[in-house]
Amino acid sequence: MTAIRRFIIMLFVLAFPMISAQSSWPPHVTVVAPVERGKVVMVSGKLENGIAIPDLSWAWRSSVACFVQLQAHKFAAKHVIFATQTKLTGIGELTVRVIPSDPNANLSLWVYASNGYQLPPNLQSVRSCEADFKWDRPFKNQTQDHTRYITMSTRSEGIVIGVSGPAEMTSADFTLEISVK
Fold it and tell me: Residue 56 burial by CB count (10 A; 0-12/13-18/19+): exposed, middle or buried?
C-alpha cells in the first residue's frame, strides 16, 4: 500500500466521526419517524422535558420570520423540539397539530422547513417558518379551540417543530400530530 493511499485512508478514518457528529440532532431533539404522504405520525411530549431558549430574537429575524417580537411572551416557557423528514416527490402540504391533554393548557407551536441541523437560538435562516398561538382577541367569523396547528407547503426536506407556552406554564402533556397531503 502506498503512503498516499494510507494517508487517504487515515484521513477518512479520522474525519468520519467528525462528519457523523455534525450530521445528527442533539439529545434534546426528539427525532420522529419520516412522514409519508397520506399518513399521520403521532408522538407525545411533555413541556417540562423541553429546553429553555431565553433569546427568541431568532424568531423575528427577517431570514426566519416565524413570529413577531410582540408575541415572544407566548413562547417564553421551555421548548420541546422535534425533527422529522418528509417523504415527498414534488410539493406537499404539511400539517402539524399540537393537542394538549388539558384543554386549558395554553400551548404555542412553531414549525420550520430546514436543510440542515440548525436549531434556535442559532438559527440564521430557513426556507419557511410558521407559528400558531392563542389569539389575544377574537377574529371575525373565526374560532379557536385548545389545539394549535400549522399548514404549510413543503418539498422533501427536514422539518423542525417546537412546542412552548407562556413563561408561567411549567408543565403540560400533549400529542403532536404530523401529516402530509
Answer: buried
In whole angstroms, give the CA distance from residue 34 to residue 53. 26
What nine digits make up the cell of 122? 442559532
Cβ atoms of 168 and 104 within 8 Å: the answer is no
- Which residue in 120, 97, 146, 129 sits closest to 50, CA to CA? 120
Is the predicted pLDDT of residue 57 greater than 80, yes or no?
A: yes
**Is the pLDDT confidence value at 134 over 70?**
yes
pLDDT of residue 52: 98
Per-residue model confidence (pLDDT) at position 104: 93
Domain boundaries, the chain: 25-180
CATH of domain 25-180: 2.60.120.380
Bridge partners, residue 161, by sequence: 82, 111
Gyration radius from the chain CA atoms: 19
Residue 94 · residue 138 · CB < 8 Å:
no
> What's the DSSP call for residue 73?
G
Q: Residue 69: is it exposed, middle or buried by C-beta count within 10 angstroms (0-12/13-18/19+)?
A: exposed
